[in-house]
Amino acid sequence: MLQEYRRLEGSRIAAPDSALAIAMADDCTRFSLRIAEEGIAQAGKAFGVALPKQIGGMTAAGGRLALCLGPDEWQLMAPLDERDALEAAFAALYAKVPHSLVDISHREVGIVVEGRDAALALRSACPLDLDEMAVGSATRTIFDKAQIVLIRQGQDSFRIEVWQSFADHVWGILQAAGREIALEI
Amino acid sequence: MLLIRCPYCAVERPEVEFAYAGEAHIARPQDPSALSDEQWKDHLFIRSNPRGTHFERWRHIHGCGRFFNAVRDTVSDKFAMTYKAGLPRPSEAEIGKARS
Ligand SMILES: [Zn+2]
């Protein structure tokens, strides 16, 4: 099946009184980084932000974001125009510190879920205990049947990273949840 | 919902993030060609299937992605403990302690 690329771009879901605002995030550069523990410090230097060491950890600086998703797995996010520079920085590191850096920018889209009822909207399909999720942490989890990476940017601000092919499905559920929240049912 | 503790993430997470992956601590024979068909069949297909304490593999597939091992009671469905892949089978005493 042919799918239009980023077909949800510009879409918004909103409830009154700013209880909930859901919007597609601006496109960005994304890398999946796999590296052994000894290389973490140097990889952090190449990325410009020290990598978090704990699973679920997140570090950010200058528009760059590093998420620790697994024991040796990170997702790196940066503005669109920094892709080539980051690739070059990691390529220069490769001879000394072997690693795998894969460009996954086109695989995913970001959905920003904000507002007083943001957690409520997410709970409609996400089994994660959001009360236990710290601000400034990120984790891979599941949203209905779709695998997502969930980032808690603030108390009432989340970002979902989801594969393009699942984005429609996730958006549809958020739309239904947003409608219920708008109607207060 | 059942919560399972991932030993890598070191947190309890909802069951739907995990996938079951069969019995744990099954060592692949060092020299498969030296085995008879009967022995090879046993390695591939025959599992202990106990009533009670069962050692099994799970994968935190919608989380950190890691395989790990768990001790679960097949009667009550309750998890006694989970531990990282590669660690030896916990002793009766350790399992008892985790259950209490
Ligand atoms: Zn895990």
Automatic annotation (TrEMBL), chain A:
<dbReference type="Pfam" id="PF04268">
    <property type="entry name" value="SoxG"/>
</dbReference>
<dbReference type="InterPro" id="IPR007375">
    <property type="entry name" value="SoxG"/>
</dbReference>
<protein>
    <submittedName>
        <fullName>Sarcosine oxidase</fullName>
    </submittedName>
</protein>
<dbReference type="InterPro" id="IPR027266">
    <property type="entry name" value="TrmE/GcvT-like"/>
</dbReference>
UniProtKB/TrEMBL annotation, chain B:
<dbReference type="InterPro" id="IPR038561">
    <property type="entry name" value="SoxD_sf"/>
</dbReference>
<dbReference type="GO" id="GO:0008115">
    <property type="term" value="F:sarcosine oxidase activity"/>
</dbReference>
<protein>
    <submittedName>
        <fullName>Sarcosine oxidase subunit delta family protein</fullName>
    </submittedName>
</protein>
<dbReference type="InterPro" id="IPR006279">
    <property type="entry name" value="SoxD"/>
</dbReference>
<dbReference type="GO" id="GO:0046653">
    <property type="term" value="P:tetrahydrofolate metabolic process"/>
</dbReference>
<dbReference type="Pfam" id="PF04267">
    <property type="entry name" value="SoxD"/>
</dbReference>
